[in-house]
Amino acid sequence: MNVVVVESPAKAKTINKYLGQDFQVLASYGHVRDLPAKDGSVRPDEDFAMSWAVDSKSEKRLADIVRALKGGATRLILATDPDREGEAISWHVLEFLRSKKVLAGVAIERVAFNAVTKSAVLEAMAHPRQIDAALVDAYLARRALDYLVGFTLSPVLWRKLPGARSAGRVQSVALRLVCDREAEIERFIAQEYWDVGANMMTPRGEAFMARLVAANGKKLQRLDIANEEQAMGLKARLEKAAYRIDTVEAKPVKRHPSPPFTTSTLQQEASRKLGLSPQRTMQIAQRLYEGIEVGGETVGLITYMRTDGVQMAGEAIGQARGVIARLYGNSYVPGVPRAYSTKAKNAQEAHEAIRPTELSRLPREVNKAVQSDEARLYELIWTRALASQMESALLERTTVSITANVDGASLDLRATGSVITFDGFLKLYQEGRDDDEDDENKRLPAMTAGETPKLVTIDAKQHFTEPPPRFTEASLVKRMEELGIGRPSTYASTLNVLRERNYVRTDKKRLYAEDKGRLVTVFLQNFFHKYVEFDFTAALEEQLDRISAGEIDWRQVLRDFWQDFSTNVDATKNLRIGEVITALEEQLGPHIFPPREGGGDARTCQTCGTGRLSLKLGKFGAFIGCSNYPECRFTRPLVQPDGEKNGGIAGDGDTPGIKKLGIDPVSGEAVTLRDGRFGPYVQLGEGEKPKRSSIPKGYEPVTLPLEIALRLLALPRDVGLHPESGEMIIANLGRYGPYIQHGKTYANLASADEVFEIGLNRAVTVLAEKLAKGPGRGRNQRAPGKVLGVHPTLGQDVVLHEGRYGPYVAHDGVNATLPNGSDKDSFDLAAAVKLVDAKRDSGGGKTAKKTSARASKSTTKASVAKKPVRKRKAGAAEPA
After folding, report:
1. In the chain, how many domains are there?
2. For the sheet containing 679-684, what is the strand order?
3. Which domain holds residue 722?
4. Catalytic residues
5. Cα atoms in the Cβ-side hemisphere of radius 13 Å centred on 781
6. Model confidence at 868, in pLDDT bands (50, 70, 90)?
């Protein structure tokens, strides 16, 4: 018997069909061991010895492998993924099995394949090798570095910067990129400029546009026309000018296709074209790689998706050329197959680019067998791979130079345009862009030198320079790759950690640096500057690559790193909080103390008039407070919710900043928007117990109008008398959202708007439906939910529900809440199984609680039964 170990059950199921009855394919479910999340897991004093631990879930998987080996296996084949992580998983499995002494007489082999297809798997099985020690060393070095940085630096943050959650080797550098961009945007000062263009006609009456590019022999740069006066002067001169076409230059241009996808370019393009996050893209790609049933056969649809190689295998290139000729004709097949090389730093091209395993498998054939997002991603990969081997597109780029003569001086104009003369690869695929630079469809009419075009109108348009754009997930991944920060497999998880730590947020695909993230970045730049430098992080990645190539010793890399790093950390032990605050205020001053609209010192407290505002570090993070505390109790967050800086009135800690929305016409009191401990709210007037209302989901606090604020403050609202009981039905907002109440019966409403709009008839119906479900909050009242699939090992459906506290997954009495930031619409079975298994293993869930209760009861009975009987003294009375 041959035992084969892979990472996932889906991959195991696919490969098992290829190998037959003499093979038992088992899944490790990813990594089986990890460094325990506590001090001492990596010990620099012992030359970086590491302690590994197996969690309860992995113990079950490893126990299955142990049983299979004890059942008479003669060969153990480690067939994990063909990268560093895959090599590490094989090494961990092997080390664990050696510790259990179950490998006597068992031949150990390592195989790797780039695609889960029958031919690729059988070819790999025919050419086994041993575990690559250099790749394992590179993994160990990377894991030790990440652990040492995280578990050494994070406690420093907790002590010196309350509210900060963690720091990481790659995470902190990625965060710096986002924060640096935010600071650039804040420092940016818009500059006015104008452009001047002429709408013209050829002698044959064909319209075109030409732009002013030079005046009096001087070339005009973008910002040279600085104001309206200059623009109007040029416009007046052009309106009186005589025009003549000097030159017409038509230049052929070739545009070449992009290479097939790497991990990072796939994430970027899927974000731009499909709107998928990097994390979601990798989840879908994993399923396409591991195997999906198409036409009665389970097969991997794409090659391995964690790669920075851009070349395709020779047989794949041959397939591509054949498909291109069949679908589009021989004119779209280049004379020589295209070869590509990567420009990314630290790239390793040992693996192929991401491509379909069979380029002849068209997207329309796959669409019938997969879900929507899987179909879209497969089509994107297929079109990019096929286009990479198509003929170049041919364009003709035309430039027309025009002279405008007026009052003995000349002004120069230029008209440009392009036309596609042969579409080539553009017939199939055009790379997405974050801008609108393409002008292929802007075609100029035919013109010749010496002609005199006719002026129609002159346009003078005002513009202002724009700040640099905030990063999208796609552009951040691109920048990280350019700098050589991280590896293809880490980009998605790095971005996810930044969101989970509330260091960044995503709004309309743009990444915004949160104040918490900016504080961490400034702290690290001031006190751990070297370790958030781009060049240092990239150089460390190069050293890890050299380890994987067997060129340098991994422990020596760790020794060199730890010597400087530990010295730097030790130097912060005597760091005073005052020094931290000074550094933060110095760099973030313009952000947290911007100029006041009415002038004056931005740091003078407007409440007491004498105190000075400064940054404070409290138990729950940073805030702005007055130096006259406790006499003046003014506080506010670093930046106010309405974007108006430095406003606010004295509060008790729950009213850190305000924005006046208007006056209540009934009471005449001010209605204000405030940011409290539990989020934004509106308040009517002042006093000891003013009327307040939280702002429900679906309403944007920054743009909240007075009308809505008054409606919120008017709650609870009387809907009407119930026709049967005669009692009033009330609509209101509660802790768990909008609801209506009749006596002791409460019924949730779908949205906050319904609180203001629901009528009596609808309210009676909703209450009746609630009563029909029966009392209590039991499982029978829960909505059916979305079935994600059957648990691969325990059976029964895994179901996604929308609960009172957010979305969660349920399986056989175990409920597990989805992690923060998870997209419930794209949450899949594999992720759900991982959640419920972790919850079950930790003792959560109904089944576990029952078992625990029974065990506790049995223990109690046993302890009572075994309780020793004290001997009575002679003459003592028997107990009654």
Report:
1. 7
2. 658-663, 670-676, 679-684, 691-694
3. 717-772
4. 304
5. 14
6. very low
